[in-house]
Amino acid sequence: MIKIGCFALAILILFSALPARADIARIDLNGAIDPVTSEFIVRCITRAENERAEFVLIRLQTPGGFSTSMEDIITRMLSSRVPVVVYVAPSGAKAASAGFFILLASDIAAMAPGTNTGAAHPLMAIGGFPVDGGQAGKTLTEKITSNATAFLRSIASKRNRNVEEAEKGVVESKSFTDTEALNAHLIDFIAKDEAELLAKLHGYKMRSFSGEERTLRTEGQSIVDYEMTSREKMLAAITQPNLALLLGVVGLILLYFEFTHPGFIAPGVIGGICLLLSILGFSFLPINYVGVLLIVLAIGLLIAEVKVGGFGVLGIGGLVAMVIGMLILVDSPDPAVRIGLWTAIGLALPFAAIFLILMIALLRSFRQKVATGDEGMIGLAGVADSEINESGRVKIRGEYWAARSSSNIQAGKPVKVVSIENLTLIVEEMSK
Are residues 73 and 216 in the same domain? Predict the structure, then answer.
C-alpha cells in the first residue's frame, strides 16, 4: 500500500508540474508592425506552445509596418507547433501591407465583413520617402518586388492559397475586400464576429506548415487573452515615431530652459527623462542619420539667427531644415511607421519659436549690467557722508561705505563709484 501511495503521489506531482492548458490563446495585434510588436507575438506563440493551447487566435488590424518585424512574426508562425488563426476584425479594419503577408501566412485566415487586405507593394525609399529613383531605382524596386513576391508565393502555395491573386497584392498593390479575398481563395472564412468564427472552426481540419494534420475543437474551450507586459506596453508607446519625436522636442526645450535658467530643477529632471525615453524609442527604429544632421543644422541656424542677425533668412532656413529632418528621421517608406508632415510642422514651429525666445533672453542677460558683487557697485551714485580725500565715507543705496578720492570732495556732494579696492570705494564727484 505504501508503494502504491508513493507512486500515486509521484504521478500527482508530475501532472501538477505540467503547464496549465490555455484552450484558445487570443492576441490583439492592433497598430503598426514594429520590433516591439514582433517581440510580443513571438513571445505569445512560445507561451501558447508551452501551455498546449488548442490554437492561437490573432485579431489583426494594421496599416502595415517594418518588413523585418513582419518577417520575424511570419518565421515564428510557420515554426509554431500550435495552429495560428488570423482574423481581420472588427468591421472597418484592414490588414494592409505587412498585415497582408501575416494574414496569408496563417494556418487559417478569416476576415470580418467590411474589412479589407492587400496593398502590399514594397517601396524603395531615399531618406524615408518612397521614390522612383530613375532607371537604377526602377531596377532596385523590381528586385525588391521580386523578392517580396517570391516570399509570398512560398507562403501562399504552402497554405494552398491562390498564388496568382496573392501576387497581385504585391505587384499591383491590389486591395481585396472580405468577399473578394474569399472568392479569390486567399482566406478561409468570413465571420461576422468571433462567436461565428469559433463555430466555423469547430471540427475544421487543417494542415500545418510542417504537414501535420489536425482537427480543431472550439466548443467548451476557454479563451485566454495574452497581453503585453508593462515593459512592452511602454516600449510600444514610445516607439511610435510621432510620440518619440514629441518626447525628444519637449525634452530638448525643458533641458535648454534649465541650462539658461538654472535652479528650477523640475524642467531639467522632466526634460532629461523625456529625452532619454525618446532616444530609447528611436533605438528600436531604423534611423536616417541625414535626418539627425539636418535637425542639428537647424538648431545651429536658429542660434546663428539670434547671434549674427540673419534678417530671418537663417531662421527660416533652420525651420525648413528641421521639418525635412523630422520627416526623413525614420528611414522607412511606409507611412504607417513614418513621421507625418503635419506632426513635423506642428512640432518644428513651436520648437523654433520657444528656442528663439529663450536664446534672445539668454543673450540679453549676458549684456545686462551686473547688479551684485563688486562689479555691481561700479557706476552707482551716492552722497558723501563726510569729507573725502585719502579717506572718508559715502552713503549709497542706504548703506555706508568707506571711500577715498583723488580729489577733495566736500560732505553732501553727489559722488559716483568708479572702482572698488578691498571694500573701499574709489569715487569721484558728480557734476550737477
Answer: yes
| Ranges 324-328, 342-346, 361-365: which has the least confidence | 361-365
What range defines the domain where residue 244 resides?
230-283
Cell reading at 292: 539627425
Adjacent-strand bridge partners of 85: 57, 108
Distance CA 77, CA 64 (A): 17
Q: 417 and 304 share a domain? A: no
For residue 12, the tally of other CB atoms under 10 A from its CB is 10
Q: Are residues 191 and 234 in the same domain?
A: no
Same domain, 148 and 205: yes
* Residue 181 CB contacts under 8 Å (≥ 6 apart), including other chains: 111, 117, 118, 187
Closest of 58, 169, 62 to residue 106, by C-alpha: 58
Query: pLDDT value at position 152?
Result: 84
Catalytic residues: 97, 143
How much is the pLDDT for 389? 86
- Find the helix or strand (DSSP H, E) in which 110 lies: strand 108-111
Burial 226-260 (b: 16+ CB within 10 A, else e): bebeeeeeebbebbbbbebbbbbbbbbbbbbbbee
Q: How many structural domains is the chain composed of?
A: 4
Angle in degrees, 0-180, between the axes of helices 241-260 and 341-367, rounded to the nearest 10 = 0
